[in-house]
Model the fold of this input.
Amino acid sequence: MPHKVLVTTGATYPFDALIELIFTERVLKKLSALAVTDLQIQYGSTPTSRVAYEKCVENCYTVLQSTGINVTGFGITENMASEIRSSWLVISHAGTGTILDTLRSPSPKPRLIVVPNPVLMHGHQAEVAAALDDMNCLLYSKFATEESIVSALDKLDRQFTELPQKHSLADLVNYEAGVIR
Amino acid sequence: MDITTITIKDALDFLSEWRYPLILLLLASMTAVLTVLAILAVLVTALVKSYALPPKKHPHGASAMFVLGSGGHTTELLGIVGQLDFAHYPIRTYVSFSGDKLSTVRALQLEKEKSSTSSSSAAPPSPPSSGRRRQSKVQTLELPRARNVGQSYFTSIFTSAVCGLECLFAVVKVQPDIVVCNGPGSCVLICFAALLLRASRIKLTRLVYVESFARVNSLSLTGRILISMVDRFIVQWPSLAERYKDKGVEYFGILA
Done:
């Protein structure tokens, strides 16, 4: 069975650092050791990110040849949810959308590593990822460094906890609207 | 008799003096200020009292207004709307803000999905078939934004005013029984407008605010503004529930 890794940078802010991080010899070799066969990169909607992605692939040509990892890339897609579902591992920026799509996807669920965009660190974006890491639902790599991501990749064989069931607010809304007889 | 004559004479003398217009102006402005204060006091009292009232019963269906914030906010809110039985909400209004066509599209998509599933499965719990059932109506409104990304604070005063007026028109026109919102920014103005409806007793619109799943340790600015104004304030993380428990914040678990 092919092992696909999906790397997502989000649609709004460029996160070229994450792409560059994946295309380092150390990370690629680590992925290869984890029996990864396909690497899919969502690089974002800005043209510079596309250039950055293409440059990375070019630079890593020999490593990719030797490891046999097949690389594909796209800017953004409407079918993100199905791309996530067909993955074995998702390495994502700290977007809540991607996190929820991954943790709510049907079994077998992809594993999830979240790397927050350092540019957005002043915001609260990474809080969700950190909180879900505490709940053992995903792996949170606090820094966008080789060290941090390789140590996250080392922990992938653990048993992850399911995200608790979504609670319905219907009863509360029905009560407030006075529609329950 | 004497006293009266003197008083009237005195009064006439007084009025003929140069101070007369000034006194009149003072009296007029005092009356105006007092009237405004009295109206405000009546409105505020009515509003404060309205929080203690239980929700009004709408056994024949309610009118609901859903405020779609954009992006992740819209995803979360439509998730909640999707859980509702539309048979209870014959009148549904989706509000979005200019430049966010996608929210409207996604709301209509949800409407389509819901109508196809409800007609294929068992018939919705129809109320006693009296003619009092509210006519079903789905509408989408696109209002101007309070503030565009990167807009200066000075010009945003004017755009907010325009947005506020449009929100007021929309809320007065729709007169929703319930407003459900989850931010950001512009939904505050919808809530203000709904509170005006409540204060003037036109409609006792109930307000439900859901803080985003993305807020783990601190409330959003919108949340901090609305926390003491809405009937129900729901957060999705226990840390937030603990921190704001004195403010009546509720936590049930993850809603997203």
Notes: The domain at 4-177 of chain A is CATH 3.40.50.2000 (Rossmann fold). Chain A has a mean pLDDT of 92. The first helix of chain A runs from residue 16 to 22. Chain A touches chain B at residues 95-97, 100, 124-125, 127-128, 130-131, 163-170, 172-181 (CB under 8 Å).
